[in-house]
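## retry 2 of 3
previous attempt timed out at serialization; input unchanged, resubmitting
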Amino acid sequence: MKIVVQYLKSCLLFLCVFEASRLYFVLYNRSHFKGHVLFSFLETSIQGFRLDMATVAYCLAPFLLIWLVEHALKKKCPAWIWYTLTGLEFFVIFLITISDPELFIQWGNKFNNQVLVYVTHPLEMALSAGSANWGKTTLYALITILVFYIIYRKLNKVQTEKNIFPRAHIPLIILLAGFNFIMLRGGVGVASISQSSAIYSDRSADNAASINSLWNALYYLVNNTENIYGKSFIYMDEAGARKEFDRQLQPFKDSFLFSDVEKPNILVVMLESFTASGSKYFSGRNDCMPYLDEIARQNLSFMRCYSSGDRTEKGLVSVLSGYPAQPASSIIVFPDKMNKLPSLGRSLKPAGYRNTFIYGGDADFAAMRSYLVLHGFDAVIDKKDFNRAQLNSKWGAHDEAMYSKALEVTGQGKDPFFTVLLSLSSHEPFDVPLESKDLPKDKWYGFKNSLRYADKCLNDFLEACKKQPWYDNTLIVLVADHGHDIGLENIFYFGSEKYHIPLVITGGALKQAYKGMQVPGVVSQTIIPCLVLQNLGMDTKDFRWQTDVFHPRGFAQYHYNNGFGRVTDSSEAISDNTSGSYHFKGKAADSINLLHEGRIFQQILIDDFLKK
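## retry succeeded, writing output
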């Protein structure tokens, strides 16, 4: 019976460990629980209990195996093995515990496949969470691990005392193992337990807190993207879905000609995290980018442009390939799939363009370099090409140095050129060499201040471009890679405000008639390849994931970790694939139709991704 008692004690201990993890998540994200921290903790503990117990069973499975071997061989396992195994399990649990709360703040989800995209670049991962209080977080983890480890050693009697290992105990251990297996599966039913057992709310924070962090991480580690998608995204039969999809996206009309230059240079500047909510001109909310606002007023501006996803590598593919972000994957890390995409680089290279990419950080991060090389870029310039003095950011070279490098490189060869710049100063940890005096010193000051710095660097660069001999023959596209939270009140966490971004076309090759023009319709950043190619008189048929500028039912669809948002001129909807929750605002008559069309778009996108 000692083994049964020890098993029950271990169950209770690991359950307490998981409850401590959940409490930490709720406290860390208390703003999402609207002050009801204790109630939220208790509610999510109840809702997540079955999944917690299944995870406890996973943790205890090695213990049961060792007990069985000990009794079969009548030989004691060394105590250090028990302590090492337990300490290792505690370490993994709390490593995930301290990561998940910050992941939820930054990305709106806990550990998943998207995190695996970045594991080969741990420094960049840490910098991406630069706003986290790592000192307090690490201290919490170390203290908690130590406390539970000491408790474990106090409770541990069976493993360390001398035993005679009667073989009569073997059937008992086998029974315990059988019970543990049932608990691991979540019961005796046909279907084993999954995250869905802990999902109960239409609020993402509630569901994230209730889902056991270790179980969630193990699930994504052992399942590939195809398995994760499964059949849950299939909304209707494929033939019907494709017919409906084609009705949504009619052929792109090549009618928006804003340049008379036959073969203009193309310069795309992707602005890190430039949310429209940081702009007075685009949203009226914050005055973080006054220079961009003035540039937009004087040139061609798209007032309702939305990013396709929420990460830089997704934005890169959306802007250059016109391919939407997926809800639970990043096509850029699948070379065989990514190689089948169309792109501006591939379209422009046969037309005689020199393709160059310039970035102050590491172009190998998130497989960006492989994408660029496969898609026709002749030169990929990153932080390895800057001198040591210019590497003045934790990511690499600040925007000022990056733009200086761009001026040095651009126009060196024969026209025409296609150059893509990617900024980084407005990325966490916001360590910019500027201190704005007029911005409020609130929790968002670091981000807002970094936007101010990046905005000034952009303006200085564009002013310098005007003095270059190639400027008059150049179209310049300014677009954010994705949006960013900026502390807006009373908005849904995955609402359109987070994905609303600036899109501006300027440069000497822009027709005078389009200077100062606003495009009021809804567009996605995936429209950029079509906008560029149609002005060169080139085919756009391979880029079909967006409506054109003047489409009467134009829309933009974005995808987050496990759901989508869809925006039209009059309405917007957010649908979560995991919980089935649905948020809508706008014309009531549009509600059902918007959800219907969004699910079809998502189904066709995922099917296309899987088949590539």
